[in-house]
Amino acid sequence: MYKIKNILILIGLFLVGCKSSYPHLADANIEYLRAKQSVDDLGSDEDVNAMIDPYREALEARMNMVLGELPEDLKKDRPNSNMGNWFCDALLDMSQRYYPGEVDFAIQNYGGLRLPFLGKGEITKSDIFQLMPFDNLLVVLELDANMLQRFLDDIADSNGWPLSRGIEFRIENDRAVDIKIGGKAIDKDRIYKVAMPDYIGNGWGGQEYLGECKQFNSNVYIRDAIIDYLYILLENNEKITIDNTKRIH
Question: Is residue 249 part of a domain?
Answer without folding.
Answer: no
